[in-house]
Give the backbone structure.
Amino acid sequence: MSENRERELAGILGALRQFGLREGTIVTLRQRDFAREDGRAIRVVPAHEWLAD
């Protein structure tokens, strides 16, 4: 796992815990991915898809 990805996942997991949320989204330039960590769902989506959603 890249250092950048680890940092992004750690950041969003902290925010999800802080606000009691079960899922979150990371918006990127082109990357698409999905992760399940600590019982939480994290979507990684390109900005153009997120804006169209």
Notes: The first helix runs from residue 3 to 19.
